[in-house]
């Protein structure tokens, strides 16, 4: 029997955030059948589709936000807070991650604190880079310090690379559409987040903030499959106070979002603590039903015990976020 399911990478848009930017990703979302309708809904449609996938509790977060300002983030988070407590059913089955102005680290830290303390948000899900680039600079210590102090996680979500880098790295002898896919959900997004984790490690972020909690999606954004290589090579760059193996075991959580194959799990289960693996869907860019089908395949596969299945389904999320599945 399927245990309760908690999902963590489940997207939504406030009108404040959606109206604040205009780019190719936004145009793509508009053309994706049904995506915008679902992204703007945090009511009956979302709940019905959660039921189809037996999702008990969904942690809602803003979709790709394209570097919103502090003012836009505040307005968007206030809208989200109203949505997750609009009805009795919503308050039982929805929780929230904040969107943060990542181009403004001090403001991001302040907004994280405000949303946690005023709205009861469980942490933040953010585009992993700002227009200024990766977040390994010392100026981001304000944010990491605040997250550690509040004891809440930051979910680093993929984002589109800067246009110049995007073209250099991914454009080739094929269509613009192929460039977008290779640089996006096929490969580029995920390798970029994996690189970001390596950069945070190299910059000593996890040495300065040993209790920092970071979540990454899509089966760990390629890191589990390169984990031993990372561990073997870090001595060349100069090892940190806390080696990457320790960081992986103590500071990083990974989710299953949108990658529906058992093959990655065979690798992950051999090098990642079961307590660090969390079920997620990546709604509405994949369906709750697809996630449930994969989860049922995992249950039947013999790769995990029933106790381990419960950890992945909901117990790890409960322990990390301090929540309870209804």
TrEMBL record:
<dbReference type="InterPro" id="IPR032465">
    <property type="entry name" value="ACMSD"/>
</dbReference>
<keyword id="KW-0210">Decarboxylase</keyword>
<dbReference type="GO" id="GO:0019748">
    <property type="term" value="P:secondary metabolic process"/>
</dbReference>
<dbReference type="GO" id="GO:0016787">
    <property type="term" value="F:hydrolase activity"/>
</dbReference>
<dbReference type="GO" id="GO:0005829">
    <property type="term" value="C:cytosol"/>
</dbReference>
<protein>
    <recommendedName>
        <fullName>Amidohydrolase-related domain-containing protein</fullName>
    </recommendedName>
</protein>
<dbReference type="GO" id="GO:0016831">
    <property type="term" value="F:carboxy-lyase activity"/>
</dbReference>
<feature type="domain" description="Amidohydrolase-related">
    <location>
        <begin position="70"/>
        <end position="323"/>
    </location>
</feature>
<dbReference type="InterPro" id="IPR006680">
    <property type="entry name" value="Amidohydro-rel"/>
</dbReference>
<comment type="similarity">
    <text>Belongs to the metallo-dependent hydrolases superfamily.</text>
</comment>
<dbReference type="InterPro" id="IPR032466">
    <property type="entry name" value="Metal_Hydrolase"/>
</dbReference>
<keyword id="KW-0456">Lyase</keyword>
<dbReference type="Pfam" id="PF04909">
    <property type="entry name" value="Amidohydro_2"/>
</dbReference>
């Amino acid at each position: 029997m399927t245990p309760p399911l908690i999902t963590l990478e489940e997207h939504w848009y406030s009108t404040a955030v959606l109206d604040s930017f205009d780019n190719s990703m936004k145009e793509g979302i508009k053309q994706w059948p049904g995506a915008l309708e679902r992204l703007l809904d945090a009511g009956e449609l979302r709940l019905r589709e959660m039921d189809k996938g037996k999702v008990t509790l969904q942690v809602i977060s803003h979709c790709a936000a394209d570097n919103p300002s502090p003012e836009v983030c505040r307005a968007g988070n206030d809208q989200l807070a109203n949505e997750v407590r609009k009805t009795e059913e919503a308050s039982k089955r929805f929780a929230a991650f904040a969107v943060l102005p990542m181009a403004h680290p001090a403001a991001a830290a302040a907004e994280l604190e405000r949303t946690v303390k005023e709205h009861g948000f469980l942490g933040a899900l953010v585009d992993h880079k700002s227009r200024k680039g990766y977040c390994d600079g010392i100026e981001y210590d304000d944010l990491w310090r605040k997250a550690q102090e509040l004891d809440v996680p930051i979910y680093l979500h993929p984002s589109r690379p800067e246009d110049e880098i995007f073209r250099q790295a991914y454009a080739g002898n094929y269509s613009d559409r192929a460039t977008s896919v290779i640089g996006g959900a096929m490969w580029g997004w995920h390798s970029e987040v994996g690189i970001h984790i390596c950069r945070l490690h190299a910059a000593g972020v996890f040495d300065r903030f040993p209790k920092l909690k970071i979540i990454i999606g899509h089966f760990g954004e390629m890191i589990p499959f390169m984990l031993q290589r990372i561990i073997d090579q870090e001595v060349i760059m100069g090892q940190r106070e806390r080696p990457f193996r320790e960081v992986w075991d103590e500071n990083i959580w990974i989710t299953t979002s949108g990658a529906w194959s058992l093959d990655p799990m065979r690798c992950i289960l051999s090098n990642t603590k079961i307590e660090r693996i969390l079920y997620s869907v990546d709604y509405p860019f994949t369906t709750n039903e697809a996630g449930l089908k994969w989860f049922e395949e995992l249950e039947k596969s013999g790769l995990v015990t029933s106790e381990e299945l419960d950890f992945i389904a909901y117990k790890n999320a409960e322990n990390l976020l301090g929540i309870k599945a209804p």
